[in-house]
Design goal:
By secondary structure, the protein is mainly beta. The chain has 3 helices and 26 strands.
């Protein structure tokens, strides 16, 4: 997309993104440890430097990723006397297959590495369909990317494939210039993801929200490719070094550390009933799908659990709105095992 179109898109859309959503915390990692049931390490240099001609190899070594004082450290370590273009070891972690989200507020409180040419930390998401469809068909949500050569700027971008019949990589991004550098303190970076829009933002030390980028996804179809943003995605955290984003690392650049205090997910199933949290781990907190004085429906590692004070029916819908299951339940606790991916679970009282 050209810059003129991007500016018009952002300006026109920003006037109607505000909602009355009442978000509740549904999942979190406060990094009391580095939970291998949640976070998977990607290993190696990827294809063509992870598609970006990067200069690091990712490892699962505790030298490159560890928790200290309830903070996740992702460390890029310079390889001594490297004559190869790969000059660092680092870490890239993802929640693929463990924790995925559809709609909500996804936030992380982070301190970016010390500035320097080629330093490239990222907090982002990829569609769960990447294994079946590949990139960019799966969709990519770049909540925060940062160039070490531009310490006062932050970038947020959406990527997708804009053609149902052939490869057509599209991206819609924006750079926000701030009055303070981002490598000297912790700040909260996030995205509000609804069926209508993706709004990327940073919250500063005075709790002021600065919008980085907004994209309209309300008319998401397979024809325009934006339907990928109406399907679940998983979280990634990594520290890349060098590559086409910010250029090769400076010759005298040393080690760098990317600090993550916490990652949290908030959802409002009433305002956005298609919201979904897939939590296949015992980490974080239970995914509360519905809660009232009569019934509490939540997801845990065994499936969907219903605690009800009355007889009734449970209706389970897929994320595309199709009824998957309707089951009569008794008062007490009912567990539904092996339920397919769902976005809505609703309780109906039994009619007499």
């Amino acid at each position: 997309m050209n810059k003129y179109f991007s500016f018009i898109f952002l300006s026109l859309f920003s006037c109607f993104v505000n909602t009355n959503a009442e978000y509740k915390l549904v999942w979190q990692d406060e990094f009391n440890s580095l939970n291998s049931n949640t976070w998977i390490h990607e290993i190696g240099t990827g294809e063509n430097g992870w598609g970006n001609n990067e200069q690091e190899t990712y490892t699962d070594s505790p030298l490159n990723s560890f928790v200290e004082n309830s903070v996740l450290n992702i460390c890029a370590s310079r390889i001594p006397n490297s004559t190869d273009r790969i000059k660092y070891t680092s870490a890239r972690l993802k929640t693929q297959g463990n924790v995925s989200i559809l709609f909500g507020k996804i936030e992380a409180r982070m301190k970016l590495p010390r500035r320097g040419q080629g330093v490239w930390p990222a907090f982002w998401m990829l569609g769960e369909s990447i294994e079946q469809k590949g990139w960019p068909y799966c969709g990519e949500i770049d909540i925060m990317e940062w160039k070490g050569s531009q310490p006062n700027s932050v970038i947020s971008t959406s990527h997708w494939n804009g053609n149902a019949y052939s490869y057509e990589h599209c991206n819609y991004g924006n750079t926000l210039d701030l009055e303070f550098p981002l490598d000297e303190d912790f700040y909260t970076y996030g995205v509000e993801w609804t069926p209508k829009f993706l709004e990327y933002y940073i919250i500063d030390s005075n709790s002021q929200k600065h919008t980085i980028n907004i994209i309209d996804i309300s008319v998401g179809t397979d024809e325009n490719g934006l339907s990928c943003f109406h399907r679940p995605a998983f979280i990634l955290l990594n520290l890349a070094m060098g590559g086409q984003f910010d250029g090769d690392v400076a010759l005298d650049l040393g080690d760098r550390s990317f600090l993550i205090d916490w990652v949290r997910v908030y959802q409002d199933n009433d305002t956005y009933p298609s919201s979904l949290l897939i939590n296949n781990t015992q980490s974080g907190i239970d995914n509360i799908i519905e809660s009232s004085d009569i019934v509490r429906v939540y997801r845990n590692q065994n499936g969907i659990v219903i605690d009800s004070k009355e007889y009734g029916y449970i209706d389970v819908f897929s994320y595309d709105g199709k009824l998957v299951l309707s089951k009569a339940i008794s008062a007490g606790r009912t567990t539904l095992n092996h339920v397919p991916v769902v976005s809505v679970v609703r309780f109906r009282k039994q009619d007499f």
